[in-house]
Amino acid sequence: MHQSMASSQMTKEMQECIQNCSDCHNICLATVPHCLQMGGEHASPHHITTLLDCAEICQTSANFMLLNSPLHGRVCAVCAEACERCAEQCEQMANGDQQMLSCAEVCRRCAESCRRMAAMAA
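User: That's the sequence. What structure does it adopt?
Assistant: Structure tokens below.
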């Protein structure tokens, strides 16, 4: 099978970041119904929006890297910020809840990975 130029130019670090973005997108979306079910501050519009913002920018960031877009570094920088924000909120609200703690952990991993990609592209 013919390999596209974009994938042949893709570094191991970029592939890892794409995977981290994909994982983060998935866990943030899965955490939305969990939070809605928990109710209270977990179901607040502010928190749900933070989760959805994070999921959306992670998907976009992965797409920009897959396309080898010259803008991927800038998108990764925004993604890192959104992931950090989401991680902080999930941690603060976790109170021992495993889904929330897992979400925060995956968000932090993605934020670190995206920060590295943004720095490499700058």
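Residues 1-8 have pLDDT under 50 and may be disordered.
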